[in-house]
Structure formats: C-alpha cells, structure tokens
C-alpha cells in the first residue's frame, strides 16, 4: 500500500486522488476474495472507508474549483447557463 520499504501504509491524508482510488480498488478486491480472518477484514474495511472519504474530499475540492471558475466566468460575462449542456 506504500512505496516505502516498511509495511506501514501511507497515511490516507497524504494520498492523492488516484493513489487513494487505486488502493481502494485493491482493498475491495482483497475483501471480495475472502479468506481473511475477521481482524484483517475489519482493518481492510476501515482502511477502505477512509480511502473512500479521501476520494470524496478530492472530488468535492475539484467540484468547488470548477464551480468557482464557472461562477467567476459568469460574473465576467464570459459564460451563461445557456452555454452549459447539462447532459454533457
């Protein structure tokens, strides 16, 4: 879970979106395979929950940046709601 030589996973707060997403995919894969004892499964599940929250934080941040840019452009008269395709 970490590029380090230790077995300690990288703290979730330090992961970028892609790193957190990729690790979350691996956690889900391991849990779906089964065969882990209860403690290991719970530890993986907790890590997965933290990774999912981290991904959501990154996505919320990206959404806020996009909305801020659109609002700034709209205030400058560069873009209007008619210019945005809601189905895109």
TrEMBL record:
One of its GO terms (cellular component) is cytosol. Its main location: cytoplasm. It is found in: Cytoplasm. It catalyses: Exonucleolytic cleavage in either 5'- to 3'- or 3'- to 5'-direction to yield nucleoside 5'-phosphates. Keywords: Cytoplasm, Exonuclease, Hydrolase, Nuclease. Its EC number is 3.1.11.6. SUPFAM superfamilies: XseB-like (SSF116842). One of its GO terms (biological process) is DNA catabolic process. InterPro entries: Exonuc_VII_S, Exonuc_VII_ssu_sf. It comes from the Bacteria. One of its GO terms (molecular function) is exodeoxyribonuclease VII activity. Pfam families: Exonuc_VII_S. The keyword Coiled coil does not apply. The keyword Ribonucleoprotein does not apply. Belongs to the XseB family. Heterooligomer composed of large and small subunits. Bidirectionally degrades single-stranded DNA into large acid-insoluble oligonucleotides, which are then degraded further into small acid-soluble oligonucleotides. PANTHER family: EXODEOXYRIBONUCLEASE 7 SMALL SUBUNIT. NCBIfam families: PRK00977.1-3, xseB. This is Exodeoxyribonuclease 7 small subunit. It comes from Williamsia sterculiae. The gene is xseB.
């Amino acid at each position: 879970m970490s590029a380090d030589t230790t077995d300690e996973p990288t703290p979730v707060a330090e992961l970028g979106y892609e790193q957190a997403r990729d690790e979350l995919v691996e956690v889900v894969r391991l849990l779906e395979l089964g065969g882990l004892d209860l403690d290991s499964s719970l530890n993986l599940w907790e890590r997965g929950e933290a990774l999912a929250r981290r991904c959501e934080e990154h996505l919320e941040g990206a959404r806020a940046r996009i909305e801020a840019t659109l609002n700034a452009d709209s205030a400058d008269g560069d873009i209007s709601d008619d210019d945005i395709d809601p189905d895109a």
